[in-house]
Amino acid sequence: MERPSWVGPDIDLSRPSPARVYDVHLGGAHNFQVDREAAQRIVEVMPGLPRILRANRAFLRRAVRYLVGQGVTQFLDLGSGIPTAGNVHEVAWSADPGCRIVYVDVDPVAVAHSRAILGEHDNATAVHADLRRPREVLAHPETVRTLDFTRPVGVLMFAVLHFVPDSDKPAEIVQEYLDATAPGSYLALSHASLEGEADRAEEATEQFRNRVTDFSMRTRAEIADLLAGVEVVDPGVVYLTEWRPEPGDEDPDPKQMSTFAAVGRKAG
């Protein structure tokens, strides 16, 4: 396999990654054959998955616009993946060019792409780190340079916490990030669930576990528990297309999404 110039020698091109498999489902070009093969097998089991992931990206856009509308101009995007079209910096800057963004991902390919796309922008950066280690993420020089934690920050966890098993205590991880933020900060997240009516979701989950990485589906109640540190804004913890849909985002059967979304504000 020809190694692209932006892919360092330490990146394993023989194993699929969640970020690149997601990129395949979104129709992106930042992936490899091994990722496309894994994505194809998962879609064979669950044909509706690309639709769900597109709905998740639409939720990201709505949530970021909402946060900018609430005066938030700083974003910490955890498990950001590959910043294909319509990602946080594009959405935020279209509303306020002064917004500052830190992308964080454990996949070096995702980080390499992020840095290439962002170029020399002083108010956006990408950090190679594991979101399960909040202290390392928060103390990273690029995080410290880019974000001012004495002012509100939007902590973003879109479609990533289902990759964090219960043994890693995801609620404690979320709370540690929130503890580092100022009052008036927000948490926005989406999370896959076996609640709902997506066809063959359990089979697709098993395929993902076998071919890509661990995957922990959670109930609506368990997802709500992850938001214990914030005041959840209307309409609460709902299916993706039910969270403040804009024209074109609606869905006649939101339960088919089998993914919940929510935004909450840190009081104080």
Structural notes for this entry:
The protein is of the alpha/beta class and 268 residues long. The protein is built from ten helices and eight strands. The chain has one domain (18-265): Rossmann fold (3-Layer(aba) Sandwich). Strands 1, 2, 3, 4, 5, 6, 7 and 8 form an eight-stranded mixed beta sheet that branches. Strand 4, helix 8 and strand 5 form a beta-alpha-beta unit. The longest helix is centred in the first third of the chain and has 21 residues, at 49-69. It is globular and about 45 Å long. The mean pLDDT is 86.
Please report the number of helical segments: 10
- What is the CATH homology-level superfamily? Vaccinia Virus protein VP39
Largest sheet: 8 strands, mixed
Q: Termini, distance in Å?
A: 53 Å
CATH-level-2 architecture: 3-Layer(aba) Sandwich
Uncertain segments are none
The chain-level structural class is: alpha/beta
How many strand units? 8
Radius of gyration: 17 Å
| Strand portion | 5-15%
Say what the CATH topology is: Rossmann fold
Helix content: 25-40%
Instruction: Please state the average pLDDT score.
Output: 86
